[in-house]
Amino acid sequence: MTQRARDVLARTQEADGSWKGDYSGPLFLSPVYVAGLYVMGRAPDARTREGLVSYARARQNEDGGWGLDVESPSLVFTTVLNYVALRLLGVEAEDEGLVRARAWFLPRGGPLGSGSWGKAILALLGLYEYDGLAPTPPELWLLPRALPFHPSRLWCHCRMVYLPMGWLHGRRARAAETPLLAELRRELYPLPYVDVDWKAARNRVAATDVYTPRGAWLRAVNRVLGLYERVHSRRLRARALEESLAQIRGEDEATHFICIGPINKVLNAVVWHLARPDGPEVRAHLERLPDYLQHTPEGVTVNGYNSSQLWDTAFAVQALVASGQEEARAPLARAARFLESEQVLEDSPRAERFHRHPSRGGWPFSTRAHGWPISDCTAEAVKACLLLEPLGLNRVPRERLAQAVEFILSLQNRDGGWATYELTRGPHWLERFNPSDVFSGIMVDASYVECTSACVQALIAWRNFQPDAPVGQAISHGLDFLRRTQRPDGGWEGSWGVCFSYGTWFGVTGLVAGGARTGDPALRRAVRFLEEHQREDGSWSETIQSCRERRWVDGPTGHAVTTSWALLSLMAAKEADSEATRRGVAWLRARQEAEGRWPGEPKAGVFSRTCAIHYDTYLRIFPLWALSLAEHEGHRKHPTLGLAP
Known about the structure:
The protein is mostly helical. It is built from 25 helices and 8 strands. The two termini are 19 Å apart.
């Protein structure tokens, strides 16, 4: 069975040695892409247009709306944006799907009930008024950097989205008027556009779109910013727009115009279209826009990143090594070349000026060109390289691995844990000012169990490879963080996968790598936690609702990826011979199809606690990994590395 699964994984390797899977799922990204092109006076080519329309139709919910992601109930935010996108792509208003969409969103206020990001995109199109938005003044970038609420203190994904939003808000940017936009203003609202009370609309959000309610502190700040907007200095505004544009340029150049994600990618392109029409920046952005497009059987959509190639490849290497080195030698050699080619070898240009953490030595989530290395991506790449080393396949020199370790060490927070791209910069109370409505945990880059465990495991592997490496204190503090964040029920809450099965895999493997023995109370609690959630058929199942509700929520059937994470945890805890493990392995084997794959299942990835995202490779990697270790009775293939499987 592992042979067939290994063959499937090897066959799906890219020519460059990576694994590049579908990273789609969110349903607000494609409409932003379409809207951005429309503002710039452009449109997708015919094939892409047809694919976008096809995908949107396929993902419309039965009630007529669209969800935050492909598995989410309908939101006004995403329903209105998808409606507008389809109209901009040439679908007529009387189309049956759009009639159903209007029947769903008009009773909920149309754009007036949308979460804040939807209103901002509609304002850019001239389908909503800026007076109805909570202000995002660009002057915030002129505040002293020492202030805890300077934009540079925010999580980089958050600040990189609100950076161009602030520039566009400061300019009151608006698409050129067209007859279609005039029609849309009549279609979108349950009352005439001229009669809308925009001031009242500023704080109106439909119940469907409220995941993070606007608290008293946020409402107070919005009132203050609203007053400022009425009296702001034109000279100061001009300075703020200039500084924002400089920061946008810094992001674009450091990422080769890929940008950290698709939202700021599109918005930055629109900013340059308005600031320097048909300038080189616009052309550079347009060249990289296709990087985000994903072609699927349902049509074309926009991925949540330019790819997940490095992340997927690092895990694929670990699974293949577990499955048998000699049989997997050829794909491992190709993967080794990819890992070597994608390490970031220098810091981003003028890092201090553009509020960037040093980058040298790190690995990104996708490719080197993306320019934003991440703690756990770097850690998983280091682990993969060190697994390849005794096989004679690792191509990353010792000095560059040492640079990667230095990068990891530079990112450890005071609490002993690791966040994603940077040290935690802002105080946790900044989360009270989350203006997004639909997301959670977007303001501060806090420490995560996944990042912490991956970094601890990488440092332990490096110490075993380089015994005099001064990493002991960092490892100890990281292990303390893992113990503190274990929940009373024995699980760990994951933030980048669904959810407790994912977090618990990292929690357990991190502690085991750090020397925790079978009888360790933390491991015993984790084992009981997993056993309590095993289904009668031997599988485990967990849905995106676990992330949203912060409690384990079972799906209707078992999931191969969730089951694999549970099995990897149990085997790391020396439970390879337990009844729970045997039943889980039997289910996973029975679930495998004749060709060697596992059938499709719900999304296993998540971000910002609410939005599911697809990791296409997970079904090819994790079941192979779990079954390989089960066949070897949980014995580590390379004990000298000190790696948990």
